[in-house]
Amino acid sequence: LELDRRQRQMCIRDSSKLEWTHFDEWLASDNQFDLVVLKNRMWHPLADPPVMGVRVDGSFSDGDVPFYMLPFVQLRGIPAMRYQGRHVLTAEAELRWDVTPRWSLVGFGGAGWTARENLSNLGEDGAHAAGGFGFRYLVARIFKMRAGVDVGFSEEDTAIYLTTGNSW
């Protein structure tokens, strides 16, 4: 059966992913530690045409983690590895408004929290917030692939991102 345009847009696309990585000497690692990453993506149409995207990610580590492998807050507008900790939680929302069948406007915002030692101390340094706006062009309708530009802002920085597919 062929769904009409509105029915196709109302389809909910959610995904979750759980990764566990173990590093040990017998696996040729210099350090012994574990990394667990949980990623959740949810896309829900609010009406015709706005679509709301939400992501909630958690990264957790244990053991002798080298500084370059520590989890960090990953948000558009915050430089990579700026806010690191043994445990990190990140939440971000994105609203996409299809202005024409091919062109869309995007607004986004989110926050990340870190814990240096224990998970119970999550957010000990407060929330690290970022947000911004952008646009998308529907490059391939059949694959629903979009490309565009985002401008992200945080307390300390501004960044420009070129995106193909999804920003997450």
Low-confidence stretches: 6-11
Could you state the order of secondary-structure elements as H and E?
A: HEEEEEEEE
Count of helical stretches: 1
Rg over C-alpha atoms, rounded to the nearest angstrom:
18 Å
- Described by its quaternary structure, the protein is single chain
Give a written overview of the molecule.
It is built from one helix and eight strands. It has an eight-stranded antiparallel β-sheet with strand order 1-2-3-4-5-6-7-8, with no helix packed on it. A hairpin with a 3-residue loop joins β7 and β8. The longest helix is centred in the first third of the chain and has 5 residues. The two termini are 31 Å apart.
Provide the fold topology:
Blueprint: H1 5-9, E1 13-23, E2 33-45, E3 51-63, E4 87-98, E5 103-115, E6 128-140, E7 145-154, E8 158-164
Antiparallel strand pairs: 1-2, 2-3, 3-4, 4-5, 5-6, 6-7, 7-8
